[in-house]
């Protein structure tokens, strides 16, 4: 949750940080497939593992967001992320900081997921408005924005009802 100091607004934090933690439900699953960055939407697989949302997945399978944890990166290439086979903490209900790829997030506003079918769109990116082209975005009906985005494009998203 951001604050104000000497007339300046502090940032929200980093993607994957839990915020407003009094109503939070987090569960642990095994990661499967590609790396899962902190704050990324995750889907539940039939075998009980979770994966990062990717092109071709149904937005209805999104159960929550990968939560940031203090961990040692296994390599020096980029930011730490959950690797295949590692335990993944997933926020099932509550608020988390997420990166907003496009649009203007507003408290109570709908959260949309890019499906990866649009030109230049990355599957799994979160946006604050639906695309005018059918099929390029899908609304996450159980998620709303809890804040506007800060200067780094980080906003709070709240999973209002559990998907599982």
Write up what this structure looks like.
With 164 residues, the protein is mainly β. 0% of the residues lie in helices and 40% in strands. It has no helices and 14 strands. It has strands at 4-5, 8-9, 18-19, 25-30, 36-37, 41-44, 50-52, 62-66, 81-82, 87-102, 110-114, 126-127, 137-145, 154-159. The strands form three sheets. The protein has a five-stranded mixed beta barrel. A two-stranded antiparallel sheet has the order 1-2. A two-stranded antiparallel sheet has the order 5-9. It starts with a strand and ends in a 5-residue tail after the last strand. The mean pLDDT is 90.
Mean pLDDT: 90
Shape: globular
Kindly state the number of beta strands: 14
Adjacency order of strands in the biggest sheet: 10-12-11-13-14
| Number of alpha- plus pi-helical segments | 0
Structural class: mainly beta
Beta-strand portion reads 35-45%
Percent in helix = under 10%
Notable traits:
globular; 164 residues; 14 strands; 5-stranded mixed beta barrel; single chain; two-stranded antiparallel sheet; mainly beta
Offer a quick outline of the entry.
By secondary structure, this protein is mainly β. It has no helices and 14 strands.
Layout of strands and helices, then pairs:
Layout: E1 4-5, E2 8-9, E3 18-19, E4 25-30, E5 36-37, E6 41-44, E7 50-52, E8 62-66, E9 81-82, E10 87-102, E11 110-114, E12 126-127, E13 137-145, E14 154-159
